[in-house]
Write a structure and sequence with these properties.
Elements: H1 6-29, H2 33-61, H3 73-102, H4 106-137
Helix pairs in contact: 1-2, 1-4, 3-4
């Protein structure tokens, strides 16, 4: 495996996070607290591994730019911008949500999880979308 394989790894990790988040949501709605906890810890772990791989890729490969087709570029930039901003915002929210759960402050955990979960899900799904657009649907000339 080389550094250039990391975008596909990152998309897979984002997809896994989305699946685990969805499973965790279903579990808590069904009052399966232990299963919910396991799904959410797995989603968190998957996201941490993603972040390590993402930073590694961009450290070695630099920035990847969407160039063509030019008519799609504004839509891609809008998607990437929302994804990037929310990816930064979601980190402290995830940490606070996890902290409150680990401290068994479930009243506070539930209040913030109502914001954390949909934002985290959005970031996970749009991460896969960014990969598909950039590397599969409209592949740029990557090294």
């Amino acid at each position: 495996m080389t550094v250039h394989d990391l975008p596909a790894v990152n998309a897979t990790l984002n997809g896994m996070s989305a699946i685990l988040l969805a499973a965790g949501f279903v579990c808590i709605k069904r009052k399966k607290v232990a299963a919910h906890r396991a799904c959410m810890i797995a989603a968190f772990s998957t996201s941490v591994i993603f972040l390590i791989c993402y930073l590694t890729y961009h450290y070695f490969a630099g920035i990847t730019r969407f160039q063509e087709p030019a008519r799609i570029r504004p839509y891609y930039i809008a998607l990437l911008t929302s994804h990037t901003i929310l990816a930064v915002v979601i980190v402290p929210l995830i940490l606070m949500t996890l902290y409150r759960a680990l401290k068994q402050r479930f009243d506070l955990h539930k209040k913030i999880a109502r914001w954390t979960w949909p934002l985290w899900m959005y970031v996970s799904i749009t991460g896969v979308a960014v990969y598909l657009i950039l590397y599969r649907i409209f592949p740029q000339h990557h090294p």
